[in-house]
User: What shape does this take?
Amino acid sequence: MRGFAKVAPMPASSLRATDEAPAKRPRGRPRKTVAERDDGNRRGELLRCAAKLFRRKGFDATSTRDIAAAVGMRSGSPFYHFKSKGALLFSVMQEGMQSAIARQQQALEAAQCNAPNIASRLRILIRNHFEILLGSGSDFIPVMLYEFRSIRAQQRRQLERLKDEYQQPWIPVLEALHASGQLKADVKLARLLIFGALNWSARWYDPRKAAGLDDLTEAAIDLFLGERI
Amino acid sequence: MRGFAKVAPMPASSLRATDEAPAKRPRGRPRKTVAERDDGNRRGELLRCAAKLFRRKGFDATSTRDIAAAVGMRSGSPFYHFKSKGALLFSVMQEGMQSAIARQQQALEAAQCNAPNIASRLRILIRNHFEILLGSGSDFIPVMLYEFRSIRAQQRRQLERLKDEYQQPWIPVLEALHASGQLKADVKLARLLIFGALNWSARWYDPRKAAGLDDLTEAAIDLFLGERI
DNA sequence: CCTACCGATCGGTAGG
DNA sequence: CCTACCGATCGGTAGG
Assistant: This one.
């Protein structure tokens, strides 16, 4: 629980500035302890807390006041960092996707050295996907998956492009498995069904219960490729 | 576009009734044409329109005024049929699930006569599931799937029970497929992954495009059972 | 089922 | 980043 100092309200001198210059930088206020300052991370804290709340309660059911309170701000302050609630949601999704793409890239590069066969290449993609989706502290992708209705068409198109970029490495893998007979289903439909199976896990997976991400990965591989691996 | 007659506002005589009896039945008002009366279906129209809006815009983003307008009512009137917006959502989900259970029962009974093998039993369940989920005019189940956060814990438990009832017939089928080696994955995880693959289709399926529900069913069977069918 | 209305809440902003 | 505030909207209700 992060408290913040209560400050006696100052009498507001209601002089109206006549110049229309936009507000520049915040001026000095009584600082918190040095450990709490790290101003550069306030934006990141907002993103993380917003993602958590958006995931648990939904975008519309989360007020900007909820988010502000979660990071110890007053109600108007999130708008110093994001120009609207929708922009905050979009940033959550966009940065979530960019991070997911980067992590997948790394996972693939690390695996390249092991020169794996094509089926274990799928295993790596699936295992990494579960990690991104269900790993600790990752609410960004679930928000991206479950709040798509709350963003405007133009931003949705940007996110679609990131999603395509993310799915790109999966396509040759699935095609190779199809060509070798390990995956019989139509490749395009198989991809849609597979991502459904994986993504839905964000709805039911409980990290406190038995199955770990490795178990999940094995079950998925067994389901999609049977014993032909 | 269903218009409704504009009525000149009557001067409100502001006598306050002192008895606290709840409002009984609606008393006479100038009727619409006979064809439009069918009072018994107003509740059903509300459910259908609400489901459509909840699916497209989300529960929180849909106002009770939106719903009222969609069926040609004034803003307060939905509360004559449902005691709250949440009760309307719950009814959509509950009646959607009850209908789904009934339709699945029928599909299984119809198939019983054909004495199918176990794999085609799974095919029947999957095909019926796609029909319920993606068939024309069925927004109830997608709403049930995507608005679970918007209902209270107690009602959620009721819906969980209906969901269990729906999934009940799938379990012996999957277990038999597992026993016969046609399904290698752990049965419980396989069930979760399979429902994910199927349910996610409500997100991407477009009836105007190429693939029909039969194609989808084939792809799903191929993916889950490979060529071992 | 309509009219007229209420209290609460919300996203956002001006000014400092 | 806080204070103080605004306009809009929303779920819901009393009374008929």
